[in-house]
Structures are given as structure tokens and as C-alpha cells.
Design goal:
The chain has eleven helices and twelve strands. The protein has one domain (2-265): Ribonuclease Z/Hydroxyacylglutathione hydrolase-like (Metallo-beta-lactamase, Chain A, 4-Layer Sandwich). The relative contact order is 0.16. It is an alpha/beta fold. It binds zinc ion. Residues 92, 94-95, 196, 251-252 line the site of zinc ion (ZN).
Length: 266
């Protein structure tokens, strides 16, 4: 499958000079376009307070309409209705902001994440899941990645065959209660979008030190920090074993986005 790597939301948190992106994948899947995450949307730019909450003062999104998934999908020559399905790593505002721009799309996520977003249990969950982000009534499709065949050592994985072959939802809780990673079998080999399972490439490639402010933010908003640490370790192992046929990206690291875009052009 042909994929496009998009930055659907530049953010400039204090202490992270490289800035952050919202890495969205657009997959040309035969029947239409499939997105992995949706970044920031047009409604966020119109009402940042209601849609993003106080977090906007820390992560400082640029809110540029030309970066929204809808505008970039249009520049690729598609229309909003071509986007049939959106698969979410989780329901934080910087991942679901674009949903309202594709009201007809089915929105796939883990059952646990849907439960967390619709019925938050903890203070962190009540703060992070903004009701305005689902005020348009998205068509949620819940999945329970169980112990099936698994995917490359991840036991809890489910191929989303109703969308297409080679798109796999992998349960990877920690950052949120029902966080997931998504694996896609692309023209250039497998691609793993790890969402917010890690923030900075050094956490998996071991090549240096992530900005302290990013690490502090990651820990502050983690639903289960021990699981986050475990995810870092698993993904680091996978990173070092990865051959040419697997590319690991995450949601916010600009260098991983550039790497994926360059690999697409190569
Ligand atoms: Zn995020």
C-alpha cells in the first residue's frame, strides 16, 4: 500500500528546541484513504481553549490550517469523503483534532481507549479527554486486540481486515489506558506507528539524551509509567533488530517524520 507521511500539527513546547510534529499517515487502501491518527483539525484552530484545554499553554500548538489533515488530503488530490477510516493510537486532543473534518469516517480504536475517553476514571483522564473533540458524534468502532497470531512479538494484535489486509492494531497501553500502535504493510516494507509510546528517538535508538522537559511531560501524563518504561524497552529491542523491512515512527518526533518521508522518496 502506498502511504504518505504528514505533519498535521507543529507544536513548540518549552525546552524542546526542535519542536514537535503530529505525524499522521495517510494510506491509499484501494477502497479509499485510511488515516492513522488525525492531528490537529480546523475546529481546533477556531476554538483552541474548548478543544485543546490548558495543555495548549505547555505544548504550544501553532494551529496552522494548512497543516490540518483535511487540507493536506486535498493537496494530495483527494476529498474529505475519500477518507473512509481513521485508526487512532489514542484519544488525546493532538491525535483526534482532525476527526471532525471527516465526519463520515469510521474511527477505529481499542475498546479500552474508547471507554477511557467516554468515561474517564482518573484526574489525568478527566483533564486529557476533551468532550468537545467528540461533540460531532464520531462513528467509533471498538476493537479488542486479543491473544491471536500476534505481530512480531506483540501478542495482543488484531488485523483490521474490514479495512484491508496488512493493517494491524496492536495494544500498547501505558501512555493512556487503551493506547495502541498501528502496523502497516506498505510498498516499502512494514511501518510501525508507535503513537506516544515514546516521545523522542533517543528513547529507542539510544543515541543521546531527550530534552528533559519532554521526559517530564511524558511522565506527568502517563496513565501507567511502569508500562511506558516497558514499552520503551520493547521498542528499543525492536529498533535494534529491525532490518530494512521495518520502519518505526512515533507521533511527535520530527526527525522520525523526516526519515520516513525521505525513505518514501528514495
Ligand atoms: Zn500526543
Amino acid at each position: 500500500m502506498r502511504v504518505h507521511h504528514l505533519n498535521c500539527g507543529t507544536m513548540r513546547p518549552w525546552g524542546a528546541p526542535e519542536g514537535l510534529v503530529c505525524h499522521v499517515i495517510a494510506i491509499e487502501a484501494g477502497t479509499g484513504l485510511v488515516l492513522v491518527d488525525s492531528g490537529l483539525g480546523l475546529a481546533d484552530m477556531a476554538a483552541p481553549g474548548r478543544r485543546f484545554g490548558p495543555a495548549r499553554f505547555f505544548v504550544r500548538p501553532a494551529f496552522r490550517s494548512e497543516e490540518s489533515a483535511i487540507r493536506q488530503v486535498e493537496s494530495l488530490g483527494f476529498v474529505a469523503e475519500d477518507v473512509t477510516d481513521i485508526i487512532l493510537t489514542h484519544f488525546d486532543a493532538d491525535h483526534v483534532g482532525g476527526l471532525a473534518d471527516f465526519p463520515q469516517a469510521r474511527v477505529h480504536l481499542t475498546t479500552t481507549e474508547a471507554d477511557a475517553a467516554l468515561a474517564p476514571r482518573t484526574l489525568i483522564e478527566r483533564e486529557r479527554y476533551m468532550p468537545a473533540q467528540r461533540a460531532h458524534g464520531p462513528h467509533l468502532v471498538r476493537h479488542e486486540p486479543g491473544d491471536g497470531d500476534g505481530w512480531r512479538g506483540f501478542a495482543a494484535a488484531k488485523e483490521l481486515t474490514e479495512i484491508g489486509e496488512g493493517i494491524v492494531l496492536i495494544s500498547l497501553p501505558g501512555h493512556t489506558r487503551g493506547h495502541a500502535a498501528i502496523a502497516v504493510d506498505t510498498d516499502n516494507g512494514w511501518l510501525l506507528h508507535a503513537g506516544d509510546a515514546f516521545y523522542h528517538h533517543t528513547q529507542v535508538d539510544g543515541g543521546g539524551q531527550a530534552p528533559k522537559s519532554l521526559l517530564a511531560m511524558e511522565r506527568l501524563i502517563a496513565a501507567d509509567w511502569a508500562k511506558v518504561i516497558g514499552n520503551h524497552q520493547r521498542l528499543a529491542e525492536m529498533w535494534h533488530q529491525a532490518t530494512e523491512d521495518l520502519l518505526i515512527v512515533n507521533a511527535h518526533d520530527p526527525s522520525l517524520l523526516r526519515r520516513a518521508q525521505e525513505r518514501n522518496r528514495a
